[in-house]
Design a protein that fits this description.
Blueprint lengths: L1 E3 L6 E3 L10 H26 L8 E2 L6 E2 L11 H21 L1
Antiparallel strand pairs: 1-2, 3-4
Length: 100
């Protein structure tokens, strides 16, 4: 089936009935654009409803540092804190299991 790519408008032979892009590069371009649009929409909706950021800031559950939330469910001030928290939790759980 011959289709037209949604990104570059090049014609291509589709290998599946719902294929929309001629290559992985075009698919990545679309994916990046979709993620960017979703983030912008989420921020806009959050700012309108007032649920996006807490006025007093949030406290990191790993280090206790106050940080500004970008999303309502953020619990960590950084990726490093998030990874530290889960690696420590996993080790503690393993030790508790072995001891107990």
């Amino acid at each position: 089936m011959i289709k037209k790519c949604l990104i570059c408008a090049k014609q291509f032979e589709a290998h599946h009935w719902n294929q929309k892009f001629c290559s992985e590069n075009c698919a990545r371009v679309q994916a990046r654009a979709r993620v960017k649009a979703n983030k912008q929409l989420y921020r806009k909706i959050g700012n309108v409803t007032g649920e996006m950021k807490r006025p007093d800031g949030s406290v990191c559950i790993n280090c206790g540092k106050t940080f500004e939330q970008h999303f309502p469910n953020e619990k960590f001030c950084s990726d490093t804190c998030r990874l530290d928290f889960f690696s420590l939790s996993a080790v503690e759980t393993l030790f508790d299991f072995v001891r107990g």
